[in-house]
C-alpha cells in the first residue's frame, strides 16, 4: 500500500511508501474508505481510481457465477455501477517497497485535515502548521516547537460519508453571536480521559463547549467522500452526522460477498438436443403428449433428437425451455453450492484429487464414518477455492446478508457507500482468493423438521422473534439458523483443539433454509480453513472430520455448561432489561468465537437449541442426548 508521497529532491527516484498492508487486508478490513493510522499521520484508503497496477497488469479473479449475482445488487446501490466483461474481480496491486513507483500501489489520502499540538493543544487545519519532513510542527509560545498529530475525532453518517469534525461551529455552539471573527481553538483534555472533561475552547472569544455535547450534533451531512478525491466527488445527503473516533470498531464495515469456485454443471443433454434450430422450430409450441407423439411420428429429425427419452421427460424439457427463454435459471449462491456438495460422489480408497483442481468434494460412505442420530452425512472437501469480493462499506452499523450470503440493498433504509465513482471507468471490484480445505456436516432434514415442530422450540422461536423485532435490523433468520449457527460455533471450537489449526483460522459457512420456492430445504454447516498463499493447507481439518462423532461429543460437552451459568443459560433476549437482543443462551464463556471466523459477528446464537442447558426445557435441544 502506498500513502501520500513526499516530494522528491530532484534525483528522479520515487519516495518510499509510508505504510504497507497485505493484499487480502484491502478486501473488507482496510478497503476504500477505511481510516488507517500511520507513524506520523492518519490517512483514508483511496477509492479504486487511486489503485495503480504495474506494467504486467493485474491478477484477475473472475468468477462468472458471482458476477451474475452481484450486478443487480450494484445497480441497487447506483444505477451507473456495473462490472466489465473481463477483469471484473481483481487482486489488490502489489507494490515493491525496494523499488517503489508512484503509479503502483494503493494511494491513500491524508485525513483528517485537522491537527492538534501535543504541547499547547492548539487545534487547527494542517495548513496552519509547519511541515518538515514527514511531520507537522507548531510554534508554541516562548519559541517552543512541538509536534502536531491528527485529531482523533471525525464525523460520519450511516451512508458512509466522512468529514472533519466541525470544530469552529462546535466551539461556538453556545455563543449567541455565533462564530467569532478570528477563532483560535484549543482542545483541552484532562488526564482521566472522560469525554465530559474534554473541551473545545476558543482563546479569542473565550467560548467553550464540552465534547460530551457531541453525542447529538445539530448538523446535516455534507456528503463528503474523501476516499474518492476532493469536493467534486461529494454527493447530496440528508443524514445526520455523528461523532466518530477514527480507530473505533464501528468506523468501517465492509460488505464482502463470497462464493466457492464450482465447476460449471454439465448441460442437460435433452435440452441441448431440443435447442437445435430445426428441432426447436418444430416442438416449441407443443403443449400436450398427444401433440408431441404426433410430431415424433411425422418428423424423423424430431424422433432422432428425443430418442432414448420418454415423452413425459421430453414434454417437461420443452416446458422448462419455454419458461426459461432458453437460459438456464440462475441459482442463489448457497443453493448452488449446497446442491453440488450434497451430490458429491462417494469417497473410495486411493482417490486422488486431480492436480490443478479448483474444487473437489467426496461423500464419506456411512459404513466408513460413525454418524450420530440427527446427522445425515459427512462430505470432505480436500480442495476448495473461495473468492471474496468487497461490494461496499458502511459505518456505525453493519449491513446483514441474507441466508444466501447476498445483500439486499434495495430493502435497506440507508444504502452503504460505494468503492468507486459510479460514473467512472473502474468497472471492477477488489477481491481475494482463499485456497484451503473443509468439512461439510449435513443434518437429517426430517429430524430438523421434527425438532422445529416441537412446542418448546416454537415458543423459543416466538421469543427470539420478539426480541429481534425490538432490535429492528434486517430480517429474522429463523430458529433453524440459530441452531445451525450455534452448532457451528461449538463444533469449530471442539475441532480446533485437535486439528492443528487455531480457532481463528477456521471459518464457518452456514447452509440454512428454503433454497427457492421449489428447492430443497438446507440444514448444514461447513467449516473451512485456507490462506491467500499458493500452497493452501495441509489436510488436518479433513482428517479430523472423519472423527465427526468424537468432535460432536466434545462440542456437546462444551455447550452443556458455561462458566457464566446459570446467568448465561437463563438469558431472555425478549426481556426489557436485555442488552443482547439477538442472542439466547450465548456469551464469551461458551459460544463467542473470533469475529473473523463468524459470518454474523457473534449474533443469532443460542446453545439451548443444540444441547440441554441448565434451567431450559430439554426438548429445546436438537441433540438431546450425547452423540
Write the layout of secondary structure elements.
Blueprint: E1 35-37, E2 42-45, E3 51-52, H1 64-77, E4 89-91, E5 105-106, E6 108-110, E7 114-117, E8 122-125, E9 130-132, E10 135-139, E11 145-150, E12 153-156, E13 162-164, H2 167-171, E14 185-188, E15 199-202, E16 208-210, E17 242-245, E18 253-260, H3 269-274, H4 277-283, H5 289-298, H6 300-305, H7 311-324, H8 333-342, E19 359-363, E20 375-394, E21 429-443, H9 445-452, H10 455-471, H11 479-496, E22 506-514, E23 521-531, H12 540-545, H13 548-560
Parallel strand pairs: 4-21
Antiparallel strand pairs: 1-2, 2-6, 3-5, 7-8, 7-11, 8-14, 9-10, 10-11, 12-13, 12-17, 14-15, 15-16, 18-20, 19-20, 20-21, 21-23, 22-23
Entry summary:
By secondary structure, the protein is α+β, with helices and mostly antiparallel strands. Helices cover 21% and strands 21% of the residues.
- Helix coverage percent: 10-25%
Q: In which order are the strands of the major sheet placed?
A: 9-10-11-7-8-14-15-16
The major beta sheet can be summarized as:
8 strands, antiparallel
Number of strands: 23
Shape, principal axes of CA atoms: globular
Radius of gyration from CA coordinates: 29 Å
Strand content: 15-25%
Distance between the termini: 49 Å
Amino acid at each position: 500500500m502506498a500513502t501520500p508521497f513526499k516530494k522528491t529532491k530532484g534525483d528522479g527516484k520515487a519516495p518510499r511508501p509510508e505504510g504497507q498492508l497485505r493484499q487480502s487486508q484491502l478486501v473488507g478490513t482496510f478497503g476504500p474508505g477505511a481510516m488507517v493510522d500511520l507513524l506520523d499521520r492518519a490517512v483514508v484508503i483511496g477509492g479504486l481510481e487511486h489503485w495503480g497496477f504495474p506494467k504486467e497488469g493485474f491478477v484477475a479473479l473472475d468468477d462468472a457465477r458471482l458476477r451474475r449475482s452481484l450486478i443487480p445488487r450494484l445497480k441497487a446501490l447506483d444505477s451507473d455501477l456495473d462490472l466489465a466483461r473481463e477483469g471484473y474481480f481483481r487482486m489488490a496491486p502489489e507494490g515493491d517497497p525496494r523499488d517503489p513507483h508512484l503509479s503502483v500501489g494503493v494511494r491513500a489520502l491524508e485525513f483528517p485535515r485537522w491537527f492538534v499540538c501535543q504541547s499547547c493543544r492548539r487545534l487547527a487545519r494542517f495548513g496552519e502548521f509547519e511541515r518538515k519532513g514527514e511531520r507537522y510542527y507548531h510554534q508554541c509560545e516562548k519559541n517552543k516547537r512541538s509536534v502536531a498529530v491528527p485529531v482523533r475525532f471525525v464525523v460520519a453518517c450511516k451512508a458512509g460519508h466522512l468529514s472533519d469534525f466541525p470544530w469552529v461551529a462546535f466551539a461556538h455552539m453556545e455563543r449567541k453571536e455565533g462564530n467569532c471573527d478570528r477563532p483560535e481553538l484549543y482542545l483541552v483534555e484532562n488526564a482521566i480521559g472522560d469525554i465530559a472533561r474534554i473541551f473545545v475552547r476558543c482563546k479569542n472569544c473565550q467560548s467553550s463547549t464540552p465534547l460530551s455535547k457531541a453525542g447529538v450534533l445539530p448538523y446535516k451531512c455534507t456528503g463528503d467522500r474523501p476516499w474518492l478525491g476532493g469536493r467534486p466527488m461529494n454527493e447530496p445527503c440528508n443524514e445526520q452526522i455523528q461523532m466518530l473516533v477514527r480507530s473505533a470498531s464501528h468506523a468501517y464495515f465492509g460488505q464482502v460477498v463470497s462464493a466457492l469456485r464450482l465447476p460449471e454443471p454439465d448441460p442437460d443433454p435433452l435440452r441441448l438436443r431440443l435447442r437445435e434450430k430445426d428441432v426447436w422450430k418444430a416442438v416449441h409450441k407443443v403443449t400436450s403428449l398427444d401433440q408431441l407423439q404426433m410430431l415424433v411420428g411425422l418428423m424423423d429429425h424430431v424422433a432422432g433428437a428425443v430418442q432414448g427419452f420418454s415423452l413425459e421427460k421430453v414434454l417437461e424439457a420443452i416446458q422448462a425451455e419455454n419458461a426459461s427463454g432458453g437460459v438456464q435459471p440462475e441459482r442463489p449462491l448457497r443453493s448452488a453450492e449446497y446442491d453440488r456438495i450434497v451430490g458429491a460422489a462417494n469417497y473410495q480408497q486411493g482417490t486422488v484429487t486431480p492436480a490443478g483442481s479448483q474444487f473437489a468434494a467426496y461423500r464419506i460412505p456411512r459404513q466408513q464414518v460413525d454418524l450420530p442420530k440427527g446427522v445425515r452425512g459427512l462430505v470432505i472437501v480436500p480442495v476448495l477455492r473461495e473468492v471474496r469480493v468487497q461490494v461496499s462499506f458502511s459505518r456505525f452499523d453493519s449491513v446483514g446478508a441474507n441466508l444466501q450470503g447476498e445483500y439486499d440493498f434495495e430493502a435497506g433504509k440507508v444504502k452503504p457507500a460505494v468503492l468507486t465513482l459510479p460514473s467512472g471507468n473502474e468497472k471492477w471490484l477488489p477481491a481475494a482468493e482463499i485456497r484451503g480445505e473443509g468439512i461439510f456436516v449435513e443434518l437429517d432434514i426430517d429430524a430438523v423438521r421434527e425438532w422445529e415442530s416441537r412446542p418448546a422450540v416454537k415458543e423459543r422461536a416466538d421469543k427470539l422473534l420478539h426480541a429481534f423485532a425490538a432490535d429492528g435490523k434486517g430480517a429474522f433468520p429463523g430458529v433453524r439458523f440459530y441452531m445451525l449457527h450455534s452448532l457451528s460455533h461449538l463444533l469449530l471450537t471442539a475441532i480446533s483443539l485437535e486439528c492443528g489449526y487455531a480457532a481463528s483460522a477456521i471459518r464457518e459457512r452456514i447452509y440454512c433454509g428454503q433454497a427457492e420456492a421449489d428447492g430443497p430445504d438446507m440444514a448444514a454447516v461447513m467449516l473451512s480453513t485456507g490462506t491467500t498463499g499458493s500452497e493452501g493447507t495441509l489436510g488436518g481439518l479433513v482428517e479430523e472430520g472423519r472423527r465427526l462423532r468424537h468432535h460432536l461429543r466434545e462440542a456437546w460437552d462444551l455447550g452443556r455448561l458455561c462458566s457464566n451459568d446459570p446467568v448465561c443459560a437463563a438469558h431472555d433476549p425478549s426481556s426489557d432489561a436485555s442488552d443482547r437482543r439477538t442472542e439466547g443462551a450465548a456469551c464469551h464463556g461458551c459460544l463467542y468465537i473470533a469475529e473473523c471466523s463468524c459470518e454474523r459477528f457473534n449474533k443469532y446464537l443460542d446453545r439451548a437449541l443444540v444441547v440441554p442447558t441448565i434451567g431450559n426445557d430439554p426438548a429445546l435441544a436438537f441433540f438431546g442426548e450425547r452423540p
